[in-house]
Write a structure and sequence with these properties.
The complex is a heterodimer of chains A (about 325) and B (about 400). Chain A is mainly alpha-helical. Chain A contains 13 helices and 4 strands. A two-stranded antiparallel ribbon of chain A has the order 1-4. A two-stranded antiparallel sheet of chain A has the order 2-3. In chain A, α7 packs antiparallel against α10 and α8 crosses α10. The longest helix of chain A is centred in the first third of the chain and has 31 residues. Chain B is built from 12 helices and 16 strands. Chain B is α/β, with parallel strands linked by helices and about 400 residues long. Classes of the chains: A mainly alpha (about 325), B alpha/beta (about 400). At the A-B interface, α1, α5 and α12 of A face β9, α7 and α8 of B.
Chain lengths: ~325, ~400
């Protein structure tokens, strides 16, 4: 029984992460009918942005709540900006082209982020360029040389994994006779639920949310009604990316290893969660994320643990075979 | 507008073209090498994971090789010729190791190939060494398939370390005889030849010695969450957990195990050997044991001389990888000085004839399977570093 409850706790913490990332997928699909495959990598960028801010603030040696908040807000801002930039330069020019072009572009952005972050740091790239030119007998002018030295030394981070510093002291409790819960678990559950509730409020109680829902019903008519469709779409991307950053920071607190391809698997699984819950539906993404987190934890814990990743994709196949519109999705009938 | 897009596309192409794989270093500092003409130099190739999840493996091995080269060059080189090193980073990926190996043997025409530490990557390199007739010495790959594929010994591939059938039994013997435990769980890395092989050999020997394996769970390298597997293991109540993985994952596993309230010691293999294990694992890894090629606190003079020389050159205590890199390079150069030609078949024959070479990590004799038959040490993680516990002979 204790083992089962421990699995429940673990599954809950895993599920809320998937739910937060799935929300980004589902909102963008709802508004643009585009599956943003780069979303998992926005999550990765959020983790690294938080890492860089935390290193700059020296969280490792003197953690504090104020610094943790700055790390949070900083990472959310960076991801929001990234979402805006990606939409503006990668997806908007293809708005009137066939949907396949946007899908492939999304995959391209995903690879760009993953492999871009695995490149050696800008300063070492400049230095190797300099020594290569020197081998040809060319010397760089002094101001370019000084510019090369001023380039960042730890960005891009390269393939070696980094370890996120602990933002606050870890406290473990043993409850219900053997189940281990830490304050990290409690905080991350609380923050995740708070953000999900906040998103519900935004989507269903604000003007922006109504505009988002209108655009997802019929973009052209919404435009005719005076809704600034371009701005609504950008706002949706920013909102989704901010949630991905929150997910990344919650994960990084208790599972501190971050590397440039950390977003690949969670991104794919969150996509499955969004499809499971009904892609385009906000409560669907939340439920889908929680269900996926639980299933993964139970399967990994009670059966062969190497099926851990496989279960997500098995669920995807099942959902597409049995109920392709997902749990909360609407069946769309095409009238000819 | 059209012109702007064309210019942007051209700039992108140019940026991509500039990203050719750059060799890590040529063994000298500064952009103006004033070395002897290359016809006189003997080129040694090294492929290692200088970046990636096992970054310290490649870096330590590279340092060990550099030290060996500097010591030989100071004594006049091999047969009067100076040695030079060319290192490529495989980023921890077997595909990259294969590409780097091809580059070293075909483009750079190295005399000998040193590497890799990880068995998966050595397996990627071995066919390339064989087909190009360039001798390859792996310093620390312990999976038996690296030198012997299905009863066929690979003609040009050698190793200077023990193999996993032996290493698996080392920890099994230690667990039964020294720690006196009967119930052990295994947590293996399912995508890693080294981890799978080592776990299997441990399992077989531990059962043979009368112990029980209460659970056998797996994970994938790069996973961040091991709580599902650890919770299942916890339910079976083992006295120790065997985790034959690489240090990054092991450190995280240790942390998460302690978070779940599991107090059993962890046992492991030489994949744990890294300064990062203690940095990341912290208090969680204290009191755990692993098998290794050598212990830096061994008082024997040969080891202490090496430790002092390494510390003077690189400013840190050499780990097992550095010592193995050093020994692999020394064996290669010793063979070069005995061979009629320091390359190709004559060099291969000289390496195969290596007998009783006194290395830092033990006496090295290359047997008919191109392996070295050496004892292993078991170390304990105490006070943020590894402390020698015992030696187990084959």
């Amino acid at each position: 029984m204790t083992e089962f409850l421990q699995h429940v706790v673990n599954g809950l913490s895993l599920g809320t992460i998937y739910a937060l990332i799935a929300l980004g997928y589902t909102m963008v699909y709802g508004v643009l009918k585009l599956i943003n495959f780069a979303h998992g990598d926005v999550y990765m960028v959020g983790a690294f942005a938080g890492y860089y801010v935390a290193t700059a603030l020296d969280v490792e040696r003197s953690p504090s709540l104020a610094k943790a908040l700055v790390v949070f807000v900083g990472s959310m801002a960076v991801c929001g900006a990234l979402g805006f930039v990606v939409e503006r330069f990668a997806y908007r020019p293809l708005r009137n082209r066939p949907r396949l072009a946007s899908l492939i572009t999304a995959i391209g952005v995903s690879f760009l982020l993953e492999f871009g972050f695995q490149l050696p740091s800008l300063r070492s790239q400049a230095e190797s360029l300099e020594s290569a030119l020197f081998g040809f007998g060319l010397r760089l002018p002094d101001f370019l040389h000084r510019l090369a030295l001023a380039l960042p030394d730890s960005f891009p981070p390269g393939p070696t994994p980094r370890f996120f510093p602990e933002p606050f002291e870890r406290v473990d409790w043993t409850v219900l006779g053997g189940v281990h819960v830490s304050n990290y678990d409690v905080v991350s559950l609380g923050v995740a639920f708070a953000f999900m509730v906040g998103l519900q409020l935004i989507v269903y109680r604000t003007k922006f949310g109504t505009a988002m829902r209108a655009v997802s019903f019929d973009a052209r008519t919404a435009g005719l009604m005076g809704i600034p469709v371009g701005r609504v779409i950008s706002g949706t991307f920013v909102l989704g990316s901010v949630l991905a950053a929150v997910a990344a920071l919650l994960v990084a607190g208790s599972r501190p290893r971050i590397d440039p391809i950390m977003g690949l698997m969670p991104g794919l699984k969150a996509f499955v969660a969004a499809v499971f819950g009904g892609i385009g539906s906000v409560p669907g993404a939340m439920v889908g994320g929680l269900v996926l987190g639980f299933s993964e934890e139970m399967v990994a814990g009670y059966t062969v643990s190497s099926f851990r990743d496989g279960i997500a994709f098995a669920m995807l196949i099942l959902v597409l075979l049995i109920r392709p519109e997902g749990l909360f999705g609407r069946v769309t009938v095409e009238k000819v | 507008m059209r012109l702007a897009r064309v210019v942007a596309a051209m700039a992108a192409l140019a940026a991509v073209a500039c990203q050719t794989k750059k060799p890590e270093a040529e063994g000298q500092a500064g952009p103006a090498p004033a070395a002897a003409p290359s016809a006189e130099r003997i080129l040694v190739g090294h492929i290692g994971s200088m970046t990636g999840s096992e970054a310290t493996f490649g870096q330590s091995t590279d340092n060990g090789i550099k030290l060996a080269i500097e010591q030989w060059n100071a004594k006049g080189g091999v047969k009067g010729r100076q040695l030079a090193l060319k290192t490529y980073d495989d980023q921890g990926k077997p595909e990259e190791a294969a590409v780097a190996a091809t580059r070293l043997v075909v483009n750079d025409k190295v005399n000998v190939l040193l590497g890799e530490v990880a068995s998966s990557r050595s397996l990627a390199m071995a066919p390339i060494a064989d087909s190009n007739k360039v001798p390859m010495i792996t310093p620390s790959s312990t999976n038996p398939r690296v030198t012997k594929e299905k009863d066929q010994v690979r003609p040009f591939v050698f190793r200077v370390c023990f193999i996993d059938p032996f290493q698996g039994t080392v920890m099994a013997k230690f667990a039964r005889d020294d720690l006196k435990v009967t119930r052990v769980a295994i947590l293996r890395d399912v995508g890693n030849d080294y981890s799978m092989g080592l776990a299997d050999y441990f399992l077989a020997k531990f059962k043979e010695l009368g112990g029980t394996i209460v659970d056998d769970q797996s994970y994938k390298a790069g996973d961040q969450d091991f709580k599902a597997q650890l919770t299942a293991i916890k339910g079976k109540n083992p006295e120790a957990i065997y985790v034959p993985g690489y240090y990054t994952d092991v450190a995280l596993i240790a942390r998460q195990a302690r978070e779940l309230g599991m107090k059993q010691p962890l046992l492991g293999g030489d994949g744990w050997d890294s300064v990062k294990l203690y940095e990341i694992g912290g208090k969680a890894i204290e009191g755990s044991y692993y098998s290794n090629h050598y212990a830096s606190d061994d008082p024997s003079p040969r080891i202490q001389d090496f430790v002092k020389a390494y510390q003077a050159r690189f400013g840190s205590i050499p780990d097992g990888l550095a010592a193995m890199g050093y020994d692999a390079a020394m064996v290669a150069f010793d063979a070069m000085s005995r061979a009629s030609e320091p390359s190709g078949v004559p060099l291969r024959d000289a390496i195969a004839a290596t007998k009783d070479y006194a290395g830092v990590t033990g006496v090295i004799t290359i047997d008919s399977n191109h392996d070295a038959n050496k004892p292993a040490v078991v170390v304990e993680v105490k006070g943020g570093k590894s402390v020698y516990v015992t030696t187990i002979r084959p």
